[in-house]
Protein 1
Amino acid sequence: GAGVSQSPSNKVTEKGKDVELRCDPISGHTALYWYRQSLGQGLEFLIYFQGNSAPDKSGLPSDRFSAERTGGSVSTLTIQRTQQEDSAVYLCASSPLAGALLASYEQYFGPGTRLTVT
Amino acid sequence: GEDVEQSLFLSVREGDSSVINCTYTDSSSTYLYWYKQEPGAGLQLLTYIFSNMDMKQDQRLTVLLNKKDKHLSLRIADTQTGDSAIYFCAEIPSGAGSYQLTFGKGTKLSVIP
């Protein structure tokens, strides 16, 4: 079946502009995650959605970052007033039944959006 | 906090075995994972191991877990050029509602033809 998709695949923006990154998870997956992959920092967790529960935003680096998930499916990560240090690949992942007993929490990743802030 | 460490580079000859090592700090981690990332691509889940297992084998892949030393390894038998990629070790640290993966910085595997 279809995997996790993300759009756009590449985004170049000027410093100070806002950007929106989109993630379509695998159908039926209740959990959705955003990660950031940047040079020297590796992969960092940003935010996690599980069903209708309040999201875990503990990884968001600043209040310029926000995310929402509409209807328990598609998610949008918004970065306001972008800075050069926001340049990175933003990865989305989804998994089924997060929280279920003995669930392996397997996360399936999309191809990522490469964001370049000039 | 939790930390996952890996060596950054590994170079092997085609046909040899590759062993990628990882150490982690959270002894309560339930599952440990290996992901593969090819150039310009997202992360592909290769395999995972439950913490009550010592070993898991899946075709050319063998995962070994030493809980006492908090050491995880991935062995790739008969390494091929298509195995060239970055391999990430990851854990889900313990804690209520903690489902985010903590990744190592990745080991870049280069396979020499």
Protein 2
Amino acid sequence: EAGVAQSPRYKIIEKRQSVAFWCNPISGHATLYWYQQILGQGPKLLIQFQNNGVVDDSQLPKDRFSAERLKGVDSTLKIQPAKLEDSAVYLCASSLVQGDTEAFFGQGTRLTVV
Amino acid sequence: AQTVTQSQPEMSVQEAETVTLSCTYDTSENNYYLFWYKQPPSRQMILVIRQEAYKQQNATENRFSVNFQKAAKSFSLKISDSQLGDTAMYFCAFVTNAGKSTFGDGTTLTVKP
């Protein structure tokens, strides 16, 4: 089966610019996650979708980050305006259901804000 | 809120030997799930092994096994017969019934020939 697809793989932007990341989960996976992984740290959950509804966005900086999952399939994560501290790898993952099942990760998008 | 601590930032092991990576967590929940994920250099994260908190028996997957001590809130990963391909960053993750996940900061494992 095809894995979790993310694009772009790399992005360099200047601070205060905006950027968007795209994720296509594994077909049939109801749960989709966006994580931020800063260099040297573990992934931090930003937002979790169950189908097209938000389950948890408690750690999403809502003043600058937004995410949507229209039609419960693919998803976009946007940052506007970007700050230097947003430099990180943004990982998308999906799982069949939430909780005890394995999450399948994409290769991530490496964002550098200069 | 849950916390996950991996106290060993870096470890190394000789090929064919055994290594244990430690993970402790803090939670007030009784039912949850624990995972070990592997992230090879420049490659995507993949599942190594998982454990349901309600199961007393330790999970095993080929050369990988865990030592789950629920009372101590400890979840260590043992890799037997280490191979060069095991070189990667290993993350311990705690997941609630609702699917909310908390990851540790990882242990970088290097397998030496």
